[in-house]
Amino acid sequence: MIYRNWYPLIIVATYLVASIPNPVCGRCTATDDLLSDSSNSGFADAGRFLTSVFMVSGFGLPVVFSHAKLIETSAAILSTFGGVLIYSSVLLYGYFFAVEEEF
After folding, report:
1. Rounded CA gap, 54 and 67, in Å?
2. 77-86 long-range CB contacts below 8 Å, 24 or more apart?
3. pLDDT tens across 78-101, in order?
């Protein structure tokens, strides 16, 4: 039963929290670009690591919850698709509305 089960919201929360470490840790470095390798800051690497942990757990938790029979397979598929939709919209927003600095 998909209804009256709140475990999929935990999964969606991981996707919402996944976008937070990059901007917070990126403020400690000179560059703000996610794909740039020019910064050797540990804070930027820590932000990328935390984002990847949240993203992998966002994809892995539905599988684990479905295997443990906490949620049904259809709920796992729907929560995974919702997480992909949320995180891809955050990435697309950052891509299209990134301000290019001119020197």
Report:
1. 20
2. 78/2, 78/8, 79/8, 79/11, 79/12, 80/11, 82/8, 82/12, 82/15, 83/11, 83/12, 83/14, 83/15, 83/58, 83/59, 86/12, 86/15, 86/16
3. 888 887 887 788 788 878 887 665
Q: State the Cα–Cα distance between residues 7 and 12, nearest whole angstrom.
A: 9
Specify the pTM. 0.68
More confident residue, 1 or 25: 25
69: left (phi over 0), alpha (psi -120 to 50) or beta: left
pLDDT in the model for residue 68: 94
Give me the pLDDT at residue 4, please: 77
In 3D, which of 7, 18, 101 has the Cα closest to residue 63? 7
